[in-house]
Amino acid sequence: MVLQRGKPVAIWGKASAGEKVTVSFANQTKTIVTDAAGNWQVKLDALKASAVPRKMIIVGSNKIELENVVVGEVWLCSGQSNMEYPLDRKLKKYAASKRGEDLAEQELKSVRNPLIRVLYVERKLQAELPTKGWAESKDTIVRYVSAAGYFFAKELASKLKVPVGIISTSWGGTRVEQWTPPTAYEQSPLFKDTIAGKPNFKIDGMVPGKMFESMLLPIIPYTIKGFLWYQGESNLMVHDTTSFVAKTRLLLDTWRGLWNDKTLPFYYVQIAPHYYSKRLKDRFPHGTDLLPYYWEAQANCLDFSNSGMVVTTDLVDDLSNIHPGYKWEVGRRLSLWALAKDYGKKLVYSGPLYSSMKVNGNCIELSFTQTASGLISSDGQALSWFTVAGADHKFVPAQAVIKGNKVIVNSTAVQQPVAVRFAWDETAMPNLCNKEKLPASPFRTDSWR
Fold first, then answer.
1. Cβ–Cβ < 8 Å for 154, 77
2. pTM higher than 0.85, yes or no?
3. What is the CATH classification number for the domain harbouring 112?
4. Does residue 64 contact residue 12 with C-beta atoms inside 8 Å?
5. In this predicted model, what pLDDT tens digit does every residue of 347-389 receive, in sequence order?
6. Could you tell me which of 407, 382, 410 has the C-alpha nearest to residue 396?
7. What is the distance between the terminal CA atoms of the chain, rounded to a whole angstrom?
8. Which of 63, 76, 159, 301 is the most exposed place for a label (fewest CB within 10 A)?
9. What is the domain count for the chain?
10. Coil, strand, or helix at residue 8?
11. d(CA 213, CA 204)
C-alpha cells in the first residue's frame, strides 16, 4: 500500500476491549489501549516519501505483518460511471476512442509504473469495505480501476518521482446524494426542515448515503492528500437544477469534516456534451436543454475552497455516447490542478474562465481569467458557439474574434447587444482555448430564466 507523506498517518483497527496494541513502522513505534468496544487508532508521525518497500508490524494478542508498504501521495477517486470507467474499457464494452492511439490499451500492454499502487473498491453494498486490498499497477486488478484516476496517478508519479496510490471507489448511475451520509442532510440548514421527523427520508426522490455507507465510510480516516470527483449526469437526468451546487458543497464539507481536514483539495470534472434531450425524451419537455445549466452549476463549484475543474467539451467523438473516451487526458488535466496547487509546479492548469463583459456600441467585449499564454482557436477556424441577444432575450449566432486576451462578439442582427452565451447547448464542442490547449468553460453573461 501507499501511506501519505508529510501528514500524521492514521492506523486503526479492532481488538478486544482493553487490549494493548503496538504499531511499528519506519523506526516509529506507537502504543495504545483499545476502548470498551475494542476500537483503536494511532497516528504515525509525518513520514518522508520512500519507494523502498518496508514492513508494518501490528502487535496485540496476535501479530499482523503488512509487507511492501511505501510512502508517497494518496488520492481518493469517486463519482459515477465516467469515474468508474475502467482502464480496460472492454470490461464495460465502452467504445474505442477515434483520435490516435488508445493510450489506455497501450498502458495495459506495457510494463506499468512500479510507483503506482491502487485500491479498487468493488460495487457491493456490505458492512465491510468490498475490496481485495492494495495492489501494484502490474497486477490484474488494475484493469478495473478508474482510468481517469490511474492516468492522474501516472502523471503525478512521473512528475514527483514518488509512489502514488489511488483509492478507486465509484458506481455508475449514482447521484451525489448517495455518496453523502443521511446525517449530513439532517443537520444541513438548507435541507433539515423538509425532512425533519421523517424516517427513511428521501432527497429529491433519492435515499441518501447508500454508497457512502459501504464504499466510503470504511475508508475513513485513511490519510489522503485529496479528492477527485466525476459526477453529475444522474442529477441532471432528474432535472436537479436548483440544488446541485448545494448538494455538492454538502458532500465536500461532510467528507472534509469526516477526514478532519477542511483544506483537502477537491478536483472535479465538468460533464461532457451529450444528447440528453434525445436520451430522455419522456423527461425533457420539447426543446429543453438542461446541460448548459449543469455546466454553469459545476463552474460555480469553483467557489469552493481548494477546488478545481476540468473541462471536457473537446473530448467527445459521439454525442450519443455518455461515456466519452480519452480518460488519459481527463487524468492529465486533473493532475495539472494538483501539480500546480498542491505540489508547487509552475504550469498552466485551467482553460479560460469568463470574468466580465463590457458593451462597446454594437459589440460586447469579454474578459477572462486563466488565459495563460494567450487565447486561441484550437482548430485555427473562426471561434464557434457564441450567441448574442438584445433586450428581447432572443439569442442569435454571433461572430467572435480574439483581441489580445479578450473576445469581441457581435451580430448584425443585434444592434444593441446586452448578453452573450458561449457553448450554451448540449451539443456544443467549441474551439476557444488557451495556447496550452485547455478549453474554455461554457458560460453566459445573463441570469435570465
1. no
2. yes
3. 3.40.50.1110
4. no
5. 999 999 999 999 999 999 999 999 999 999 999 999 999 999 9
6. 410
7. 50
8. 63
9. 2
10. coil
11. 19
